[in-house]
Give the backbone structure.
Amino acid sequence: METLDKTSKEKQKNSWKYFDSNKYQFHVTISSASSSIDPTITSEEEITSKGVVYMEDLEKRKNVYGICGECNEPGTGKKWCQPCNSKRFKENFQNWTSENKDIDELLQYSQLNAVYYTKLLEWIPYENFQCVTYIDEGGFSKIYSADWPDGHIEYWSIESQKWVRSSNKHVVLKSLNNSSDINIEFLNEIKSQLHIYFWNIISYYGITRDPNTKDYMMVLEYCTDGNLRNYYLSQQPEYNSKIYDLLAIAKGLMNIHNADKVHKNFHSGNILFKNFYPYISDVGMCQPADKEQSLEGVYGVLPYMAPEVLYSHQYTKESDIYSFGVIMNEFISEEIPYKDVPHDSILAEKICNGSRPKIFKGTPKLFEELIMKCWDAKAKNRPTIEELYQTLKKWDDEKLNNDSEIFSQVKEWKQIRENEYKNNSNKNKSKNLNVHSQAFYVSRPLNFQNLSEPINSTDFLSVQSDSEHLEKTSSSWNKKEGSYL
């Protein structure tokens, strides 16, 4: 009998299923976090190629992820058992602390409830990082890159009785200014995202602390190809590739909205590329981390902010759609929005009065119309993210069809762009990088008073041609914070 039991246990060690990532999610979806979401609206592709696996569906979990060799229950993700791993994490709580009760509780909560390693946050001692290098600074944070030799946890090995880690990860350290007394609301924003299935959203690995400044630092996934602007300036992607990239960005935003979340700070600096694929970062991170710094007004990058956000300081899904329109126009035209004017109260008032970024003259009509819909001053008139996704999906499907409207419009656009590059491509690129000294493309606090109620304008493109007037009439310039991204 003892021999049979031993043999049985050995068989259980190999009970994880071969996982098909083209067919199913990497981990289960918690119904309580998504009960209001109708999966049929996430698009046909989302259902067929990334099948949802719900926590309570034991049979499907068994078929998709297999059986845990320790508790004989279905897995909660690829090579992951939440109940068993939770016990391991709990036993280790006594061996670490961030020296902040609220942060400890957040990390412990994530570890006890993690259905997969991407939902896990670790306390990572600062000395575990190497080659820490300063990159840039924003309104409430400083950004560093670093090497993490250990890497993040991937799964528990029953055979070796230890965690298997990714090893040799290049990561980003986001230092939160004045965070020794961290804001509980900031931590709650992170906590609220832990059980939502986000696709192409930047992963958080954990938290560390700068031993010199005593500021806490978020440890994030590093994206090798930079942000959207870095990407189009260095890679010069062709139009069909841009359609696919916009579709992928829309897919990420759709997952955020379908989880009843709002990004709140959606701009080209928060769209990062890794292996030529776009990822969305900083979801919901639009507030200072410290308790003492109260934020009056809003936080973000002015050219991407919807007029109603500037006017009423209210973030909504519709305001994300406005931002998506600005991002789409920038990506297509490769022109930085409002780069030749100060980002001050004059520009904010112009935006509320209906002014919008310039649309490049060769932009396909289909894209121009979609961009303008996203920019409608009446938020209710803007398309939903599902409508945006379906439109971009249709264009992506038809972009190689000679008989399609998108094919003919893209063909015409390519000819216009080729003629431009032949004339003087270097001059055009140099002009694109010539940014006004009071134009800011990092997130910062904004608090404009007495703005007009948002309206549509019959001449909403006028702000670009009216830049000289804006410069002359600007009575005061905001102090620059951070560097150009």
